[in-house]
Amino acid sequence: MKNIINKAVGLMCFSFAFPVLSANAEVKFTEAAVPKNLHVYSTGGYIYVDHLPGACSSSRYIVDKSHPALDTIVSILLAAQTAGKSVVLRYDGCVTNGEQGNVVGVYLK
């Protein structure tokens, strides 16, 4: 019986915590603009791009090297930057002390 109660309490705690976690991961969108300064800056392999500022404190965005669509995102950003075409960035929050948007997607505009 004690095991069932512990599982129920754990499930309730998870249920209450889940909306808080999902609220922090709300996907946001930038306005359309031509990406600039696409680069790999650190030895960690993270890719950075400058774009219009969104909800974060700078206009720099980061594409995590573990993103499953990393190659596709970088390809679109590189093509858009080279051709001078606008893109919209999708990001799910601010990282590095709230400065940089964490890119989760991109599309041509």
Your description of this structure?
The protein is α+β, with helices and mostly antiparallel strands. The protein has a single domain (26-108), classed as OB fold (Dihydrolipoamide Acetyltransferase, E2P) (Beta Barrel). It is built from two helices and six strands, in the order αββββαββ. The protein has helices at residues 2-24, 70-83, and strands spanning 28-29, 36-40, 47-50, 60-63, 87-95, 100-108. It has a six-stranded mixed sheet with strand order 1-5-6-4-3-2. A hairpin with a 6-residue loop joins β2 and β3 (47-50). The termini are far apart. Residues 1-24 have low confidence and may be disordered.
The number of distinct β-strands equals 6
Helix content: 25-40%
**CATH first level: which class?**
Mainly Beta
**What is the CA-atom radius of gyration, in angstroms?**
18 Å
